[in-house]
Amino acid sequence: MSEQASVTDPFKVGWEEWVALPGLGLPALKTKIDTGARTSALHAFDIEPFGPSQAPHVRFSVHPIPGREDVTIACSAEVIDRREVTSSNGETEWRYVVRTDVVLGDRTWPIEITLTDRGSMAYRMLLGRQALADEMVVVPGESCCQGVLDYSAYHSTAVQAAAPSRTLRIAVLSREGGAYSTRRIVEEGAARGHVIEVIDTTRCYMMINPLQPEIHYDGARLPRYDAVIPRIGTSVTAYGAALMRQFEASGTYCVNGAEGIVASRDKLHAHQILSRSRIGMPATAFAASPKDTDNLIALVGNAPLVVKLLESTQGKGVVLAETRRAAQSVISAFRGLKANFLVQHFVKEAGGEDIRCMVIGGRVVATMLRRAESGEFRSNLHQGGSAEPVKITRAERDTAIRAARAFRMGLAGVDLLRAHDGPQVLEVNSSPGFEGIEKATGRNIVAALFEEIEKKVRPTVARRRSPRAEAANR
After folding, report:
1. In CATH, what number is assigned to the domain containing residue 79?
2. What residues contact 31, with CB distance under 8 A and at least 6 apart?
3. Residue 447 is assigned to a structural domain of this protein
4. Comparing 123 with 5, which gets the higher pLDDT?
């Protein structure tokens, strides 16, 4: 082999090139190669730092196609530095610096890049001399030496599906930061690289206006969140629902909306929704007048029957009346307390057992059988019941999914009874606990919840333009 043949040809780079930043989900960027600039720069707006001080992150949005503000890519990255940078026009600003791989032709290497708004610039990215390898030769008179990419990549479903997972900022509305379910959300979210912030529902306050709904917390306005997971206690349902409506108005993805939370907490309203959706449930009756007590009992098929407070939870405020006289006494006592309640048929064949179905994103991800302790008819784990994994029938699965859908919930604990005439829904819980079902089934329920959140907040594929408009932007 001759000495001349052994010499590697230089890697030629023109004054402009097409590059990709796969780590940021940017498959095509027309870039200016600027050896006069030391640092590289990427167009970014809505730049927002977040996360703990020992591991700061930044999230930002990019319009990768000049003149196309309808195409927006949401990005996030770990912050490696913050530097004062002076641009070519003499303006100085502090910029966040991130590290990511750049692809140019058949070469891939890591670079440091600063984030700044280049919306008025012809090029969405500038590649400075610090990012160029020693063997690269910049040829000022040539363009796109390493090939041409296409902006149509941003319209590709496959490209969007392959986009890297980004760090999300997620709020958990909970007054019990030390509770098992809240701790699991924080731990699992951190393990997946997200930033989770637990917010005490009652310490939030709202600014209600037509232009920009705001939520404040401890004297400061809350930042924009990618998603909100409500863990709202029954004692603050009304205020928690108001907060959720505020988050919904700002465009934040809410795992469960205010409408479903409020409806599920009111037993009467909940059963009316189930009835309207033709979902099986025990015969249920409600009346306001004490003169209707006997008719009320007769409507559900006489004793034994169950009397429930409309806002009961965890089996509290639920009484089994085994005889007609006992039912009359319980109803009389509830009315004496001016409590709202309903009367329900007792499904004896269930034998003190019910099934908790955890429904996430329209699918049942785990099921457990809850069994009441001896002498007790309530199978709630908080009432001493036991739990074990169980296989459910197709009818039971369909019923659970339909029930969650009826309340428009992304996360629901649906409780079913096995009756002679098919599955019957007892309750749809908007803040189901994770401890019992994770221990009983050995499944990571919270991971399934985050998978659904990550899918929901993924940016959608941009709309296609006409071929003429596409050509004009290449």
Report:
1. 2.40.70.10
2. 16, 17, 18, 19, 123, 124, 125, 126, 127
3. yes
4. 123
Name the token pair of 108: 């891939």
pLDDT at 376: 55
Total residue length of the chain:
474
CATH of the domain at 431: 3.30.470.20
Residue 238 pLDDT > 90: yes
d(CA 102, CA 107): 8
Query: Of 346, 367, 391, which one is at a domain's C-terminal end?
Result: 346
Mark whether 47 and 150 lie in a shared domain: yes
User: Which residue type sits at 239?
Assistant: Y
What ranges in 266-393 are assigned the alpha helix state H?
267-276, 293-299, 324-336
Structural domain boundaries, residue 376? 350-456
- How many whole angstroms from its chain centre is CA 109? 33
Backbone Cα Rg of the chain: 29
Which among 419, 449, 454 has a CA at the least distance from the CA of 432? Answer: 449
439: phi then psi, degrees, rounded to nearest 5:
-70, -40
CA–CA gap between residue 397 and residue 367 (Å, rounded): 9
Q: Are 266 and 251 in contact (CB under 8 A)?
A: no
d(Cα 157, Cα 135) in Å, to the nearest integer?
36
Nearest to 353 by CA among 329, 376, 327, 337: 376
Classify residue 438: in a domain, yes or no.
yes
What is the count of structural domains for the chain?
4
Give the residue from 20, 49, 14, 19 showing the smallest Cα distance to 33.
14
| 92-122 pLDDT, tens digit each | 889 999 999 999 999 999 999 999 999 888 8
User: Could you tell me the pTM of the whole model?
Assistant: 0.74
Asked if 120 and 160 sit in the same domain, the reply is: yes
